[in-house]
Amino acid sequence: ELKDALRNADYVLLAPSIVVYFIAVFFRAVRWRYLLTPMGLFPVQRLYPVVIIGYMANNLLPVRLGEFVRSYFLARQEDVKATSALATIAVERVYDGITLLAFAALSAPWLLLLGEFDGAADISRTTGLLFLAGTIAAFGVLLAVFTLLGSSPAFADRMEGWLNVVPAGIGPQAKKLFRTFVAGLAVLSSPSKHLALFFYSLPVWLLEGSMYFMLAYSFGIDEHFDSVGVLLLVVLLLTATSNLATSAPSAIGGIGPFEIVAQQTLMSLGVGASLAGAYSGFMHLVALWLPVNLAGLALLWKNNLSLREMSAASRADSLKSASSPAGDGD
After folding, report:
1. Which domain holds residue 31?
2. pLDDT of 180 above 80
3. For residue 316, is pLDDT > 80?
4. DSSP annotation string for 197-241
């Protein structure tokens, strides 16, 4: 049945959906420019390829090591410290989570009221609620800590004081890295900037959700729901759950958690297991994973670099940053 679902799908919308994805990545570069503003004004056209390389590296390296590759590659091109750039990427991840949670908070209650979850087992509902509650708590704590670090020097000083327990041999270097990281959180100094970051995040995820919507028609997912409006709510929830499942460092490229959670989300809404599995796997591996990997590798080749070199250099740069004088750049 899985093979039948893949064979019967209409792939005419695949190319447009990939174009939409790269537009979403462009808006990620726009958001990153805003986050980097305290460190300098960087043109979006220079940040865009760096973001693509970072996402490619995340897909091909374990436990999100691509974030280090991305921050190192930016520091290699621009006058910015890699550790500060890494802090802005951490803020990105928090706002990705907050935006996705907003999608879930908007869509799930409506789908529940419309009876779309009536066929789901009670254990599935309980698991979903626990997952969302835990995710909300985790992102809430991260947002609070990052905001306090970026806006309250006194709080940052207290947090730095905890590093006194670190062995004397590496204590000074650890504190330098911590201060450089905190410098990257300066953009979180006011409520208006938080609101701006949320609005910068919306086009990123609305465009990526549009991919899910387009390919839902390719696989006939739309036939399981009464209207386009219900399908839109389903897509919002699916975008949220599948990406929140990969927000914590896990398997390379999030392969496994994404497919499982996406499939289970669709099954809880009445879509058959084979169709849900075929759609989820194709969406992740062919539409999301492969195109950005090819683009990122092409950009590395253009710069006469390899992923192995970039990964090794980013780790070496982190060690060098830790041992360099406080005023040195990356």
Report:
1. 2-323
2. yes
3. no
4. HHHHHHHHHHHHHHHHHHHHHHTTGGGGSSSHHHHHHHHHHHHHH
